[in-house]
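SEQUENCE-TO-STRUCTURE ENTRY
===========================
What this section holds: a protein sequence and its matching fold, both as plain text.
Question of interest: how does this chain fold, as expressed in backbone structure tokens?
***
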Amino acid sequence: MFWIVFGLFVIDSILITVIILMQEPKQAGLGDAFGGAGGGDFGSMGGTAGGLHRLTIWLGVIWGLLALALQVIPRA
């Protein structure tokens, strides 16, 4: 069971890396992260950018759950 979860963890890690690299940068820098220079709302992206953003969030949640499962499941 451990090795199945580990395999899923590796696949999810690769997928999340590819999806993050596919996203276009906002080019706003750190100033926008702390409330400067306007910017869009958190969930206001539409089209492909919004889909990639949501997919990144879901893959991140799955990655975290798999990481926790790897700590709980005994290695056999």
User: Anything to note?
Assistant: The chain has three helices and no strands. Residues 1-23+44-76 form one domain. Residues 46 and 53 are 9 Å apart (CA to CA). The chain has a mean pLDDT of 82.
